[in-house]
Specification:
The protein folds into two domains: 3-78, Phosphorylase Kinase, domain 1 (2-Layer Sandwich); 86-321, Transferase(Phosphotransferase), domain 1 (Orthogonal Bundle), CATH 1.10.510. The chain is built from twelve helices and nine strands. It is of the alpha+beta class.
C-alpha cells in the first residue's frame, strides 16, 4: 500500500500513532509506528489484531516496513476512529455520561470482549483511554498488553487504577480481569472520576486493590439494574465474576436500545482532577524503566511481600511514578 503519513494523533513512550491516507484510494486510516529493532511488542499486537473480526473491535488493515530518516520503521495500519477515546469525550464534555449512553457504550464493549474471550484472548488493559469512538459507537483498541490465554505464564501488564485484585497481587491475568476493568470503566463514565477515591499514591493503590477486600464504590445514583450489573463485574473473586457472555444477557444491557443517532446526551457535572493523575496511566514498556514497580512485581517473592515492600518504599515509588515522562503501559521485558 502506498500511503502518506499525516499528523500524530497519539503517542506512547515508544510507539506513535498517526493519521494516514492511501495515495490511490484516498482512504484515511491510523498507523502505529516504531523502529523495527524495537517492534517486538507491536508485531505481537499486529498478530493478535489480525486474528480478530468484530464491529466492536478496531479493525486491522495491513502492516509494512518503511525507511524514514535512515531508520527502518515497522507500521501497523488500523481503522481510523475520528471521535477520540471514551476518556477524551468525558473530559471534553466537562462531566459524566448519562446512564442510557453508559449502557449503549458498555454493551458494545462487552460484545467486543465476548469476541476476544471466545478466541482465547485477554485484552489486559480495558479502560476509557483504550475505547475509541466514531459515529457508529465504541470499539476496543490498543492490544499491546493482550495475550493468548493458553500460551502459559505471561508477565503482568495493564494500568494500576483498573487492575483486578488478582492482577495487583501478581497471581494471574485472564478474561475475568477484563471484566473488572470494564466495571472500573463504567464508574469512570458514570462519575467522571476515579474508581478508587482518595488515592493518589501508587503503592497505596496497589495494596488496597490487592489486599483490602474492598471493591470500588458503586455510584448510588445509578439505577438498580446498573448497580447490579456493576456488582457482577466487580466481584473480587475472579471465579465469581460474570463472563462477557453472561453480561450480555443482563437486563441492564438487554434494555440498552440507543442507536447511533441518539448519542448526544452528556451530563454537565465536572470530572475530578484525578483524570490527569499518573495512577490512571500505564507504563509503555517495562524494559525501558528499571523501576521499583517492575522489580517487585516480577520478583520471586510472595505477592503479599511484593506489595508490602512497595508500600514501605512509597516515597521512592512516588518519585518514580511522578517522573516527567508520561507512562503508558506496564509490560514486562519477557517475550511471549
Amino acid at each position: 500500500m502506498d500511503w502518506i503519513r499525516g499528523h500524530t494523533i497519539g503517542r506512547g513512550s515508544s510507539a506513535a500513532v498517526s493519521a494516514a491516507k492511501s495515495i490511490w484510494s484516498g482512504e484515511v486510516f491510523a498507523v502505529k509506528s516504531v523502529e523495527l529493532s524495537k517492534s517486538q511488542l507491536l508485531q505481537k499486537e499486529k498478530k493478535i489484531l489480525s486474528e480478530l473480526s468484530s464491529p466492536y473491535i478496531v479493525s486491522y488493515k495491513s502492516y509494512d516496513v518503511t525507511k524514514e530518516k535512515d531508520k527502518l520503521i515497522f507500521n501497523l495500519m488500523m481503522e481510523y476512529m475520528p471521535d477520540g477515546t471514551l476518556s477524551d469525550v468525558i473530559r471534553k464534555q466537562g462531566g459524566r455520561i448519562n446512564e442510557p449512553l453508559i449502557g449503549y457504550y458498555t454493551k458494545q464493549v462487552v460484545q467486543g470482549l465476548e469476541h476476544l474471550h471466545s478466541r482465547g484472548i485477554a485484552h489486559c488493559d480495558i479502560k476509557g483511554q483504550n475505547i475509541l469512538l466514531s459515529k457508529t459507537g465504541a470499539k476496543i483498541a490498543d492490544f499491546g498488553c493482550s495475550r493468548w490465554i493458553e500460551s502459559g505464564a505471561n508477565p503482568i501488564g495493564g494500568t494500576p487504577m483498573f487492575m483486578a485484585p488478582e492482577v495487583a497481587r501478581g497471581e494471574e491475568q485472564g478474561c475475568p480481569a477484563d471484566i473488572w476493568g470494564l466495571g472500573c470503566t463504567i464508574i469512570e463514565m458514570a462519575t467522571g472520576g476515579s474508581p478508587w477515591t482518595n488515592l493518589t499514591n501508587a503503592a497505596s493503590l496497589l495494596y488496597k486493590i490487592a489486599f483490602s477486600g474492598q471493591s470500588p464504590e458503586i455510584p448510588k445514583f445509578l439505577s438498580l439494574q446498573a448497580r447490579d450489573f456493576l456488582s457482577k463485574c466487580l466481584r473480587r473473586d475472579p471465579i465469581e465474576r460474570w463472563t462477557a457472555k453472561q453480561l450480555l444477557k443482563h437486563p441492564f444491557l438487554e434494555e440498552s436500545n440507543l442507536n447511533s443517532t441518539s448519542i448526544q446526551h452528556f451530563a454537565t457535572t465536572s470530572p475530578t482532577s484525578i483524570l490527569d493523575q499518573d495512577i490512571w496511566n500505564s507504563v509503555e514498556e517495562l524494559e525501558t524503566m528499571n523501576s521499583t514497580i517492575l522489580q517487585k512485581l516480577s520478583s520471586t517473592e510472595s505477592p503479599l511481600q511484593r506489595v508490602r515492600e512497595l508500600g514501605s518504599n512509597s516515597s521512592e515509588l512516588e518519585r518514580i511514578w511522578n517522573d516527567d515522562e508520561r507512562w503508558i503501559t506496564i509490560r514486562s521485558s519477557s517475550s511471549e
